[in-house]
Structures are given as C-alpha cells and as structure tokens.
Amino acid sequence: MSGYDQKVAPRREESSGYDQKVAPRREETSCYDQKVAPRREDRLKSCIALSGGVCGMGGRAKGCMLDDGERGFTQGSICLLLVALAILDSLPETVVLVHGAVGCGSCAHSQNANTRSGGAARFGQGKDAIWLSTALNEVDVISGAEGKLKEAILEADRRYRPKSLAVVSGCVPGLIGDDIDSVILEVQPQVSARLLPVHCEGFKTRIWATAYDAVYHGIGRSLLEERNPDPARAPLTAEAEQAQRVEQERLGRTVNLMNVSSMGRVDELELERLLQALGLEANLFPVFAHPDSFHKATRAALSVSTCPTHDDYFLKQLQEQFGVPYLIKRMPIGIRNTSLWLKDIAGHFGLDAAVERLIDAEEREVRAALAPFRELFRGKKVYLSAGEFRALVTAQLLEELGLEVCGIRMFHHDAFADDEYGKLAATATQDYTIGVANCQPFEEANLLKKLKPDLFLGHVNGNGTAARLGIPTHTIYNTGLAYIGYRGAFEVARRLHRTLRNPAFNRKLSAWAELPYQEAWYGSDPFAYLDQRKEAL
Amino acid sequence: MSAHFIERPRGTCSLGGATFAVNALPGGIPILHAPAGCAGSFAWAQNGGSALQVGGNCGPLAIPSSNLQEHEVVFGGDARLRQQVANTLKVVAGELYVILTSCVTEIVGDDILSVVRDFQAQGVSILGAHTGGFKGNAYQGYDLVLQTLFHDFVRPAQPKRGKVNLWGVAPGLDPFWRGNLRGVRALLESLGLEVNAFFTLEDTLEGIRAAGEAELNIVVSDVYGLEAAALAQERHGTPWLATGLPIGPSACGDFLRAVAGRLELAPAVAEAALRRGGRDYYKTLESLTDCYQDMDLQRYAVVVGDANYAGALTRFLAEDLGWLPELTVCTDPLGPEDQARVQARLGAVQGFAPHLVFETDGSEVLGHLNRRWPNGQGRRYHDSFSPAFMLGSSLERELAQSLGAPHLSISFPVANRAILDRGYAGFRNGLTLVEDLVSAIVAGR
Q: Is the ipTM of this complex over 0.85?
C-alpha cells in the first residue's frame, strides 16, 4: 500500500508511562466519591480524531499518548447515553428512566431487540426492556425539572416495582442545572428500588466509551452492597459452616467474566466452556446480571475483562475496595488472542500445564476445521472499522484466516490496545492507514474508493458505506452471532466465506445506490478536515 | 398515563422527526446543529422502530452534524455552525440543505437563521428550522419541516386547477409511509388530480417549490402537519382539508367524495373512481369469502396506534372487515384539541361504537381492556374477549400473548417486520392489510 496522505499526529511524551497493571493512583480511587465519573479525555487521554500508519502506531513507546485532533466537517455519531442504555436496558427487573428530551433514549427501540433476544437466550423468555422518559418540554427547560424527576421516580417505583431504577440524564438536565444526585438522595428512602444515577450529558465528552465508566460509577456507588444476605454466611450450625466452606471453595475458583452489551449468549457460552475446562466458574457481569446479584462480583477470585476498553474503571474499584485482582489486557477474539487470554487466567491460578493442554487441543481442532475456507480468503484485502480493541483483534483473526489487512479505523484511541498495534505492525506486509474517528463515514468512503478492499467489516450502522460501494461486508458485531473464542473464529470464517461466495446484494446495490458525497470529495485527502475545527474557535 | 413520564416513547423528538423528513425530501440534506449523539439516537430509533428502514438521502451516521461540545455550550456555536455548513457544501452533495437545531443549541440560543441568510445570500439552497427536542415529539418535527418549506421555500403562486398537495404521513415514523403516500396519491389521481406529496420518488424539489399552486392541501391526518396546513393557508391562501388516513374501501370512498366536494368536481368523477376502486377491492376480496366464513375469521380486536392509525385501523375493522374493535388506544401525547379531532373521527364510524382511550404507556393497555371487557374470573359461562386480534406496535406483543391473540405490528415501533414499499391506505392497499391480518391468524395452519 502506498501510505499516501498520511499524517502522523505528534506525540506527547509528557503523558507517557500509563500502565494499567500498576495499582490505581490515589486520584483514581477517589473517582467513586465524586458524583460524576471523569471524562475519558481527562482520565485516560483518549482521543477520537487522528490518522497514522500501523507501523507508526505500533512502534510508539508503550503508553505514549497522542494529541487529539478536531475535524472541521463532522457527521453525526453516537454519545455515551446510547452506550449506557445498551447495558442498562439488559438488566432484569430494572427500569431505565431517561431524564431528558423525549428523543434521548429513542435508541432503546433498537436495543430492545437485544434485550428480548438476550433475555430469551439466558432466561428462556424475552421481555421488553422498560425505559421511560421524563420528556422534558419548554416549561421544564425554563423552570427546572427536579420536581418532575422526583415524581417520576416515585411513580415508576410504584407502577413497576423494579429491583433497581437507573436515572440516566441527557444533555438538557446538564444545561438547565438539574441535580439528579440530590433528587436521588432525597427519594431513595421512599422507594423500594435501588436508585442508580448515570450521568450521560452527551455534549460533555466526545469519548462515548465514558459510558462504561458512567454505568460502572452508578453500579459501584449503588448496587454492590448485598441485600438480604444469605443466611449461610452467618454460620450457626455445623451444616452451615460446611456450606460456607463449600461456598468459599467455589468462590476461590470463580472468575468475574466481564461481558459487554455487544456480546451474545453464544459468546458467553464459549468462554464459560473454556473456563470450565480449566475448572473455573464464571460470574458473568454486568450485562444481563440481576441487580440483586451484583454483590457477587465483590467475592470472586479474579476479574477478567473481555474488552479492555470496557472495564478498567470498575476493575480498579473491585481491586481497591474488595481485593479482587484483575486481568485487563486482552480480548479473546482470534485463535492466538483467545489462547493468550486463557493463559493469563490460568497463570493466575497456577494452571499453566492444564492450559497448555487445553490450548493445544483447541487450536489443533479449530485450525483443521478452518482449512476448507482458506482458499477463498487467500490474499483478499480487508478493511475494518469498529471500536479500537475489537477492530485490532478482529484484524488479527482475519490475518489468521489468510486475509490481508489493508486499513483499520477505530472509534477512539487510548492506551489499552497499544500491544495490539505492535502485533499488527509485526505481521503487516506494508504500512497501512489507521484512522481514528467517531464513525465519520465520509472519510471512510474516500479511503475505500482508493483502497478498493475485497471485504469490509464494520460496526452496526457502519457497513452501509462499503455496501453501497459494492464491497462485500460483514458486521463486526451483531449481538447473538458468534465472534469470540475458538468457536467464534470458526463461525466468523464460515460467515465470511458465505459473504464472499455471493456478494450480489452489495454488488447490484452499488450500481444504483449513491453515497451522499460530492464527486470532488473523492479526489481529496481523506483526512483533509482533520485539525481544521480549531479555525472555528 | 403518567403526568411525569412517558413509557417507551413511540418515535423520537422533534429533531428526529425533522431529520427523517428532510432526509426523505428530494435532494434534502439535514445539517444537525447538535451534539454528536442525536444522529445516532435517530438511527437506532429507526433501526428498532421503522421496520428495518434506516437512513434516507444521507444516513444513518452520514448526516452532517456540528457535534457540539462543551466549548460551544459555553461560547456559543455560531462559528462552528458556519464552518460546518461551509464544509458540508464541499463534501456532501445535496439540492436542499436544512439546518436543524437541537435542545443544546436552542438553550444556548444560537442564531441559526442569520447563518442561513448569509449562505442564502451566496446562492446556497439552504433553510433552517428550530426543532430543539424539548419542543415536542417527532411528529411535530415533521410538521416543522413542512412549515419551513411553506414559509421559506415554496414560491408565491396563483392556484392552478387540478393541483393538490398531500401530506400527513411522516417518513420513518409511519413505517408504511411510502406505500401509504402512494396509495393516497393513486386515489387522488383517480380523480384526475396532479399531486405533490413532498417525500415520494415521484416528487421533485421543483414540484415542492410550486406547491403554492395547489388548489387544496390535503392532510390525511387529524394531527400531523396541521400547523403547516394553517401556515400554508396564511401565506399562500391555500385552503386545506384534513381527513383520516383512508384505509379500506369505506374510508377511501368518503375520502374521494370529500376531496371531490371541496374541489367542486363533477359528482360523477368521484362516483366513477369510487366504483372502480370498490370493484377492484371486492372482486379480489371475494376469493377469501369461503375461508372467511368457514374458518370463522371474525375477531374481537384491540387497536393501539398513533393518531393516524388508531382511528384509521379501527374504522377499517369495524366498517369493512366486520370485526369488533372494542378498544382503541391512541398512544400519542396530545393536547385537548388534537384529542377532540381524533375522538370525532372515531365517533363518525358507522354501525359500531368504538371506545377510544388516550394512553401513552403500553403497559396500561391491559388495564383499559379489563375495565372495558371484564374477564370471566373463572366463570364457566362467560362472554370472553375471544377470539381476539391485537393490532398495534411491536411493543404490544407481550399483551397479545397474554390475551392469546395473534398480533400485527403496524404503528411505530415496528421491530419485527421488514417494510419497504407496503402500504395500507388506498383501495388495493386495503387488500394488503386483509392479507396481513388473516395471514397472522392462519400462520400455523
């Protein structure tokens, strides 16, 4: 690849040295004392507007952060409120009360499909999520809406009798100065639901991964205390003492398996299967976890992230307050990364020999199963676009399948995935473009016209650009399809194989469908609008 | 109903409805002056509610948006908007750009109209509308876009005989919007009229600019787009006629007569169109006759829908299909005047007295039904609400299940059907509705 038009963002040496294995710093442990989780721009120096090459990204000193850019032309994207609702809507017996205008939370119509299918897969029955809106109007904006919120909480508690009730604030309360935390403090004694404040004022952060911190912040402050403690925990009799010993032994091999809302039950089953093969038990958390079961996370022997972008905020709390150590380094997508993920866990429990046997058998089996697909994949160029960690590890999976990565775009960049750039740089046959953008399909359209990949993998609502260009596409996550572990590697290969065998839908579509861009735009530098926004300020 | 919240609001906010509308105009490109997440919320609302239709001319996440941050909240977003518009013109191809405001920009108080004027002065085809989300729901956003067109885009003109404008069906919010507009257009064309419907493939920006030439504005809704109709009358002198959404041969017949009457067409014109449509409908329906009788396909029904569907579906079931729609629930949060119009429409149903409730919250519908039709409490002989059918949105599935009733999603949100071109308004589309209802009953056959 030509490496055309690359702009390597300047480095920021002064902020180097971030290492997630170091115990949390004092100022981080105090996050939970604050009402609002800090923005990731501030806490992690995350950024969303960059471009560079994979070799440059992979060759940086570890933890060396980059200056964030700005765009002078932008397209709509998502905010942390959408991401937060994706998690909260999944919690059983939970009401999600969006405090905002009536459109904030309309994303829940899509997420409800996941709540239903995910509930069916886990509990045998899919039920609609319960989300409500205070539907703030002009009067509320002028006179404040704390009173309305208070009444809404009281009425929702009476009507739905939920175990927990999340109050999610949108932009408007942030602008008119509603103090949702004070309202919650005031009404908590009057309601049976546990109230969970989740701050999602979209204009305050452009790193929507801040949503994970905002949700965990609410969970960490409101839901970790056990309700109606198990009587077995207060030993009176010999039987009870015995039961407690059994429970302690079980907890000693229980792992908090941190799931994500984009993960279907099929992926959880794969990881549970692998952990069970090592004699470990999984406590799945937080997506689809019952609010009365959250305290279990405080008693596990280890917490393991399945997506490092997702979990650091909470894992640090579990370690600090409850002494639960954690692993947050890898995502178990792709054969090699799944094996590394398992090795880390096994290492913690001293199960090194067992994991070698497991990995050896699993890898051999899946590689043999993949053999018939390889011929069609060989040498095909693939472009990926998704959340940073997911995009980078999926790229490695595709390389394992025999495809050649020709470009990657991430929704944001932070330090968690630095190792993954290094791995990709090591296998890249030539330098290719890395872009960091919160969607921004105009840049993607420009890049894809130039790169002409044979295959595109993009996020939900992110495949339309490539599809209209006639490129075979596959969604990089669809809650319910298998992506994770050895099973996921096989299923991804199987789906890509059928995608490539008949890409007629996109091919035919491209002959008629138009992308909404000026013809001249395709002749421009794809990153022409990067760093222009400062001119407006 | 709660005075303090809306359960699972059906649709989105005024900015969302306006975005759907602009995105469906010929060559329309919305420019959101908004934080980044608004566009995503609308995309996901469409994904879950618009029967698998996502996007428009530009979308779903390709919509130009100023993506405001704290800086603009503190210092104002005018400069950022100007930059965004200037760059949008360079990157995004459109024929009509429309700046739409959000909650944030309304509260901050950015003066978008001066930005619009400055770009217009350079010859740019651009409009602006105040659509901040706290101003209302998505249907109001749709109305605001039409108002903006009549206020700032439609050129003054003398009425021309035989030309009409048609609206009242909101893109995206009615998952059947394409098919419904096509169905109503066909009715109007059967009267020999020339129709501008703003949002269909047959429409053009030039046709919209000439919308002032219409003799009559026809709004197939008792709520959606009425403010635009009033504004069009004030600015262009065009009278308007609000009808229900004409679903089924009875409603279509009334619609044809009402339009013909207002336009003072020869009575024979409407009667001929009506006879033709009715003949097509019944000649086709006829083949269902044996099975309709033999399989006992008459049903009690609950209808849950927006202000258009609640009345239109109820009327069709009662007057044409011969069902018993015992409870009709309108899920829009409406003011008293809008409620009165929806109520009056249902009050005019012939031969059956529907019972209408205004209720935004789906979980309350069962309570309304139990009050209307008390359950048997285990009595051996009881006139139960059975066999029943549930017409509503996909949020009524759990209720349908508890009633043991088949269910059809029609009103937003429609998560469990793929709709592209299907519509229920108009003579032939009424047959499509019959097909869908009966198919849901016999699916296990």
A: yes
CB A168 within 8 A of CB A198: yes
Q: Is the dihedral of CA A148, A150, A154, A159 positive or negative?
A: positive
Contact present, B5 and A133 (Cβ < 8 Å):
yes
CB-CB neighbours of B152 under 10 Å: 16
Q: What is the CATH number of the domain that holds A109?
A: 3.40.50.1980
Tell me the CATH number at B246: 3.40.50.1980
Nearest CB to B13: which of A103, A131, A536?
Answer: A103
Which residue type occupies A44? Answer: L
A118 Cα distance to chain centroid: 16
Cβ contacts of A517 on chain B, cutoff 8 Å: 91-93
Ramachandran assignment for B59, one of left (phi > 0), alpha (psi -120 to 50 degrees), beta (any other): left
Q: Render pLDDT for A153-183 as a digit per residue (tens, 0 to 9).
A: 999 999 999 999 999 999 999 999 999 999 9
Pairwise CB contact (< 8 Å): B87 & A72: yes
Residue A152 belongs to a domain: yes
Cis peptide leading into residue B333 (ω within 30°): no
Instruction: Please check the confidence at residue A309 and state whether its pLDDT lies above 80.
Output: yes
A106 touches chain B (CB under 8 A): yes
pLDDT digits (tens, 9 = 90+) for A423-437: 999 998 888 988 888
A519 contacts A43 by C-beta, under 8 angstroms: no
The answer to whether residue A200 is domain-embedded is: yes
Q: Do A249 and A216 reside in the same domain of the chain?
A: no
pLDDT attached to residue A34: 82
A500 shares a domain with A412: yes
Measured in angstroms, the CA of A153 and the nearest CA of chain B are apart by 9
Positive/negative CA dihedral, A202, A206, A208, A212:
negative
Let me know: does A132 contact A163? Beta carbons within 8 Å: no
B positions 398-417 inside 8 Å of A (CB): 398, 413, 415
SS3 B251: helix
Q: Beta-carbon neighbour count of residue A237 at 10 Å? A: 9
Contact (Cβ atoms closer than 8 angstroms) between residue A90 and residue A126: no
- Domain residues for the domain of A449 are 374-532
Give domain status of residue A18, yes or no.
Answer: no
Answer whether 0.90 is exceeded by the pTM.
yes
- Residues A113 and A174 both lie in one domain: yes
pLDDT of residue A7: 31
Write the secondary structure of B402-436 as one string of H (helix), E (strand) and C (coil): HHCCCEEECCCCECCCCCCCCCCCEHHHHHHHHHH
Instruction: For residue A323, give every residue at least 6 positions away whose Cβ sits within 8 Å of its Cβ, in sequence order, or none.
Output: none
Shared domain for A192 and A246, answered yes or no, is no
Element spanning B28, H or E: strand B28-33
| A214 lies within 8 A of chain B by CB | no
The residue among B335 and A25 whose pLDDT is bigger is B335
CB contact at 8 A, A278 and A349? yes
Contact A410, A51 (CB under 8 A): no
A109 contacts on B by Cβ (under 8 Å): 8, 44-45, 47-49, 413, 415
The crossing angle, in degrees rounded to 10, of helices B336-347 and B307-315 is 10
A191–chain B Cβ distance below 8 A for any pair: no
Instruction: Residue B328: name the closest of B365, B302, B351, B289 by CA.
Output: B302
